C-alpha cells in the first residue's frame, strides 16, 4: 500500500483531505480484482486516481468527472451526477458510513482513443468527509468484440469485418501485424486481408505445420514477392503463430499474427482466442453466402454462369456497348443417343472450357440451357465481335476426344448488337441473338450471323 501511496501523492488534489484517499479506495477492492479506481468528492471532482487510471488519463485528478466523459455520453452522465448528489445528501442526513451504487457503462476520452468502461460506485463517509469510490473496468475489447459479432450476424462483408478484427488484434502492444487466409471459400483460395502494406518475407513459424505450408502454397500466387518458408524470424528477432479457422469439420482458412518481441504459446493463444472465433464465424457466414450464390449463379455441370445470373448481368449491360453471342452446338440429342449421356456431359464441359479460353478477358460466358451457350462481350465493335465469333467457331469445330471416342459438334453462332447510341434496345439482345442464330443455321454448319437492334442491317460469315 505504501508503494501505491507514494506513486500517487502528487496526483492528490491540493485541498488536502484528512482522509487517506488511497487507503479509502483500495479498502473497497478485492485484492484479486484487476480494476482501476478513482475517488470523487461530493461535487464529482476527481480527488485521487489509481496508477492504472493515471496510465490511461494522466491529467484526470482535479477535473470534474464530466470532463473525462465522451461528449456523446455527457447527457446521461450529467443526469446521473445529479442523482448521485441527492444520494450523497441522504447519506449525510441518515448518518450512513457506506452505500453502494449500481453500475453504468460509458466511454472515457483518453489520449489513445475512446475507452469503453463499466463503472460501479461506493459512497464512503469517513472523518466527516464524503467521497464516491468508483471501480472502473476497461471493457473496450469486449465492446469491440460485440460490435464485430453484430457485423458478422448481420451479414457484414469480409472486406468490412476482417479489418475490424485486425484492429482488435493490433490494439495489443505485443502484436505488430496479422493476416487472414481462406481455403476454397472464394472461387480460389486467397489472402483475404493483411494489416501489413509489405508483409514480412516469411509468415509461418513451424517446420512441421502443414497448415502453414498449405497457406504458403495458396497465397504465393498473390504475394509473388514473398517467399513463404516454414520458418519465421530468428529467436531474437520476433515471433509468428498461425491458427486454423474451421467450421468444426474442415479448415476454412487461417489467421496469422506476428510481432517483434518473443511471445510464448500460452500468451499467443490467449491473444488469438477471441479474434480467432470471430474470424471463424465470419468465414462460416461468408461460406454460406458464397454457397448460396454459387448454387443460384453457377451452372452445376460446367461451372459457368447460370442463365438466371446471366440475364441479370445482361440487364445491367446498357452502358458497355455490348455484343451478345448465342452459341449452339447443333443436334446434341443425336450425340447423346449415339455416344451416351456421360460422353455428352463431358463434351459440354469441354465446350465450356474452350469458349472460356477463347473469349477476351472480362467477357462473360454462360450456359443458358442444354447445348446453348452465350457470351456477353462489353465495349466491342461489330467487326471485333465477328472476329471473336470466327475464333469460337474454329475452337469448337475441332474434334473432342472423350474416353477414346472422337466427337464432333455442329456449331453456329448468332450475334446481336444494340443500335449505335441507343441503349434502349438492350432488352432485345437475347431474342435478337436467337433470331440471328436461326439465320446462321440456314446458311450452313460453322457459320455466324449478325443482327443489330432496330435495324434491318445484318451480316453473315
Q: How would you characterize this protein structure?
A:
By secondary structure, the protein is of the alpha+beta class. It folds into three domains: 2-138, 2-Layer Sandwich (Beta-Lactamase), CATH 3.30.450; 142-297, Beta-Lactamase (2-Layer Sandwich), CATH 3.30.450; 307-460, Alpha-Beta Plaits, CATH 3.30.70. Helix content is 38%, strand content 25%. The chain contains 13 helices and 17 strands. It has helices at 2-8, 21-26, 51-56, 74-94, 140-153, 158-170, 210-219, 265-297, 307-315, 332-339, 341-358, 382-397, 429-443, and strands spanning 36-41, 46-49, 98-110, 113-126, 129-138, 177-182, 190-194, 239-246, 251-259, 323-328, 364-369, 372-377, 400-402, 405-407, 412-417, 448-452, 458-460. The protein has a six-stranded mixed sheet, sandwiched between helices. A five-stranded antiparallel sheet has the order 2-1-5-4-3, sandwiched between helices. A four-stranded antiparallel sheet has the order 7-6-9-8. Helix 10 (332-339) packs across helix 11 (341-358). The longest helix has 33 residues, at 265-297. It is elongated, with a radius of gyration of 35 Å. The N and C termini lie far apart (95 Å). 31% of the residues are buried.
Amino acid at each position: 500500500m505504501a508503494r501505491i501511496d507514494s506513486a500517487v501523492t502528487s496526483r492528490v488534489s491540493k485541498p488536502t483531505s484528512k482522509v487517506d484517499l488511497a487507503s479509502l479506495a483500495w479498502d473497497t477492492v478485492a485484492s484479486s480484482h484487476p480494476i482501476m479506481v478513482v475517488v470523487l468528492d461530493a461535487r464529482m471532482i476527481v480527488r485521487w486516481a489509481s496508477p492504472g487510471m493515471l496510465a490511461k488519463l494522466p491529467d484526470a485528478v482535479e477535473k470534474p468527472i464530466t470532463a473525462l466523459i465522451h461528449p456523446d455520453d455527457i447527457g446521461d452522465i450529467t443526469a446521473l451526477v445529479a442523482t448521485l448528489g441527492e444520494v450523497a445528501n441522504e447519506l449525510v442526513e441518515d448518518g450512513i458510513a457506506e452505500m453502494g451504487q449500481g453500475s453504468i457503462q460509458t466511454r472515457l476520452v483518453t489520449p489513445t482513443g475512446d475507452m469503453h468502461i463499466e463503472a460501479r460506485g461506493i459512497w464512503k463517509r469517513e472523518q466527516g468527509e464524503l467521497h464516491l469510490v468508483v471501480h472502473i473496468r476497461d471493457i473496450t475489447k469486449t465492446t469491440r468484440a460485440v460490435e464485430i459479432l453484430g457485423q458478422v450476424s448481420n451479414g457484414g462483408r469480409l472486406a468490412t469485418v476482417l479489418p475490424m478484427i485486425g484492429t482488435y488484434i493490433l490494439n495489443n502492444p505485443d502484436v505488430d501485424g496479422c493476416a487472414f487466409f481462406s481455403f476454397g471459400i472464394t472461387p480460389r483460395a486467397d489472402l483475404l486481408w493483411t494489416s501489413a502494406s509489405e508483409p514480412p518475407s516469411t509468415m509461418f513459424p513451424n517446420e512441421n505445420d502443414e497448415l502453414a505450408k498449405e497457406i504458403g502454397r495458396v497465397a504465393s500466387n498473390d504475394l509473388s514477392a514473398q517467399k513463404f518458408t516454414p520458418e519465421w524470424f530468428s529467436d531474437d528477432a520476433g515471433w509468428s503463430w498461425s491458427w486454423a479457422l474451421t467450421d468444426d469439420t474442415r479448415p476454412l482458412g487461417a489467421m496469422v499474427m506476428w510481432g517483434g518481441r518473443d511471445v510464448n504459446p500460452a500468451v499467443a493463444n490467449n491473444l488469438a482466442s477471441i479474434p480467432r472465433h470471430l474470424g471463424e464465424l465470419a468465414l462460416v457466414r461468408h461460406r454460406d453466402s458464397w454457397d448460396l450464390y454459387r448454387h443460384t449463379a453457377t451452372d452445376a455441370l460446367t461451372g459457368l454462369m447460370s442463365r438466371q445470373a446471366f440475364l441479370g448481368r445482361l440487364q445491367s449491360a446498357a452502358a458497355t456497348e455490348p455484343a451478345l453471342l448465342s452459341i449452339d452446338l447443333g443436334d446434341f440429342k443425336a450425340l447423346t443417343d449415339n455416344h451416351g449421356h456421360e460422353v455428352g456431359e463431358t463434351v459440354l464441359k469441354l465446350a465450356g472450357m474452350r469458349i472460356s479460353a477463347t473469349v477476351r478477358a472480362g467477357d462473360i460466358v454462360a450456359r443458358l440451357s442444354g447445348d446453348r451457350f452465350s457470351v456477353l462481350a462489353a465495349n466491342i465493335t461489330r467487326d471485333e465481335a465477328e472476329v471473336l465469333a470466327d475464333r469460337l467457331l474454329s475452337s469448337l469445330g475441332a474434334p473432342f476426344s472423350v474416353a477414346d471416342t472422337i466427337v464432333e459438334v455442329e456449331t453456329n453462332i448468332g450475334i446481336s448488337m444494340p443500335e449505335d447510341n441507343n441503349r434502349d434496345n438492350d432488352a432485345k439482345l437475347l431474342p435478337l441473338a436467337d433470331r440471328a442464330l436461326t439465320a446462321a443455321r440456314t446458311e450452313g454448319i460453322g457459320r455466324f450471323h449478325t443482327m443489330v437492334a432496330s435495324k434491318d442491317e445484318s451480316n453473315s460469315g
